[in-house]
Amino acid sequence: MFEGQPKGLYALALANTGERFGYYTMLAVFVLFLQANFGWSEGNTIAIYSGFLGVVYFLPIIGGALADKIGFGKCVTTGIIVMFLGYLLLSIPAGSSTIAAALMFVALLFIAIGTSLFKGNLQVMVGNLYDDPNIANKRDSAFSIFYMAINIGALFAPTAAVEIMKYAQNTLGVSEANSYHFAFAVACVSLILSIVIYYTFRSTFAHVDVKKENKKDEKAAAANEPQLSKKEVSDRMTALFLVFAVVIFFWMAFHQNGGTLTQFAKDFTEQSSFGLQSMMFDVTNLLAVIFIVYSGFALFQSKTGRGKVISGSVILLSLAFLAYKYGSISPDGVEVDAPIFQQFNPCFVVALTPVSMAVFSWLASKGKEPSAPRKIAYGMLVAGLGYVIMVLSSVGLGYDSGERVSTNWLVSTYLVLTFAELLLSPMGISFVSKVAPPQYKGLMMGCWFGATAIGNFLVSIPGYMWGKLPLVAVWGVLVALCLASFLFIFSVMKRLEKVAK
User: Fold this and answer.
1) pLDDT tens digit string along 215-257?
2) DSSP one-letter code for 468
3) Which of 59, 74, 268, 465 is most buried, judging by how many CB atoms fall within 10 Å of its CB?
4) Would the pLDDT of 57 be above 80?
5) Rounded to an integer, what distance in angstroms lies between the CA atom of residue 100 and that of residue 94?
6) What angle, rounded to 10 degrees, do the helices at 441-458 and 60-70 form?
7) Three-state DSSP state, 66
8) How many CB atoms lie within 10 A of CB 372?
9) Can you give the pLDDT at residue 318?
10) For the purposes of burial, counting CB atoms within 10 Å of the CB of 252, is it exposed (0-12), middle (13-18) or buried (19 or more)?
């Protein structure tokens, strides 16, 4: 999995991990913060949440176009600084007045602008590492590793948000509404860590930071780029926009994790867990399982006896830790907070990335690995199946019934949605990196996020359905959209696979 990858990949991935940790810490409690601090309704808070996500993912179109002109590194650095200012404003406990609401919206705008300069351009630099023909075949696996690093940051975010809020309330005597600002302040610290990593290891990826500082450099860069005809450029752009049209509906479904799925966790899911089941709500237990998965692969793949001994030892220590934690389970169970469910998706991404890569590597050795467009199509189908689980969990539930269902329903949904994400998201980013005409790399990566933005704007639609339509109908809409997208992408599969060769 990691063999033969350039060092620059790990530097860029770790820089992104720190930034994503802060972002997802904020996002894990954002909807609940709006309700607790301002007393706004579920529909309005989900609309603000989806609107923010939409702007965050739409602005990279501008950030990418700008980077094509001035260089990716400059945009990344500027983005971190602007994001830091946004999180700093958001961490100020300004109360619930109109001025406080205005300050919050200004902070959100700063975060969105900073993200637009940082996120897409960092990923373009990752893709540029694999323009070297000697490692071009590692592009898909590189983006899987990069995507895994993002989710390492996201894995600890919900726990960090919940625990720092509890600390502020129980130790510092801060009110619930003000304790959210302590969670937001975590993002400031994580951004400092990101910029330190980025500049400490910049030498490992500086060569892919495209800077057209003068005409001589521009001509030299152009000479090394593949020459495409107008038709080839047109075919590539058409294929990219067909993929963008499909992923809109994936992100509409997937990003319900901070909207209706969090609302379902808050209103309809059991608030405590007991026995073996309760262990999955402790992030350290999840981390131990991840260690077992990676050490298991290392045990079988290691070429030295020393490597096998280390891997086996890690597995035994992790199992011993889990046994100890199981023996320490309180008979009173554990409290299950609504935001904690958001730890499962990143956990599953990190744990399952080597599994998915091993499966596709095995299929490749047999000459049967699906193309990136086919993986994207299968991702839409699997996402639809994820919401079939929500349909089944909601049968017989009414908004005023007061009934609550097992936490396993939501956890299962997050597991299936993670399978969909692993098929679609890293493969989609890799597809854009590979297919985008060289002169439009930044812009096309920005358009990938633009499609994500439209999907995030549409996240609010199920939010507005909430309380007006039966729960089964809310989830049914998402199932239908995912299945329709699956059928559409297969209808244009030949055109997509033609440019991906």
Assistant:
1) 444 444 444 555 777 888 888 888 888 888 888 999 899 888 7
2) T
3) 59
4) no
5) 5
6) 170
7) helix
8) 25
9) 94
10) buried
- How many other CB atoms are there within 10 angstroms of residue 479's CB atom? 19
What are the tokens at 166? 């509890």
The pLDDT assigned to 304 comes to: 84
Specify the amino acid at residue 161. A
Token pair in block for residue 491: 């209808």
Angle between helices 283-301 and 344-365 (to 10 degrees): 20
User: Given this model, what pLDDT does residue 486 score?
Assistant: 93
H or E stretch at 335 = strand 334-335
In whole angstroms, give the CA distance from residue 211 to residue 425: 28
Separation in Å, CA 395 to CA 256, 466, 498? 19, 15, 44
The two three-digit tokens of residue 456, written as one number: 């995030």
Decide: 144 and 435 in contact? Cβ < 8 Å: no
Partners of residue 269 on adjacent β-strands: 405
* DSSP letters spanning 157-212: HHHHHHHHHHHHHHTS---HHHHHHHHHHHHHHHHHHHHHHHHHTGGGTGGGS---
Residues pairing with 189 in the sheet: none
Q: Which long-range contacts (CB under 8 A, 24 or more apart) does 194-200 make?
A: 194/15, 194/16, 194/17, 194/18, 194/19, 194/80, 195/15, 195/77, 195/80, 197/11, 197/14, 197/15, 197/18, 198/11, 198/12, 198/15, 198/76, 198/77, 198/80
In terms of residues, how long is the chain? 501
Q: pLDDT by residue (tens digit) across 407-440? A: 999 999 999 999 999 888 878 878 887 888 877 8
Report strand pairing: 272-273 vs 334-335: antiparallel
Dihedral of CA 28/15/226/137: which sign?
A: negative
Distance CA 386, CA 469 (A): 20
Distance CA 340, CA 217 (A): 50
Q: What is the CA radius of gyration of the chain?
A: 23
**Res. 316 pLDDT band, cuts 50 70 90:** very high
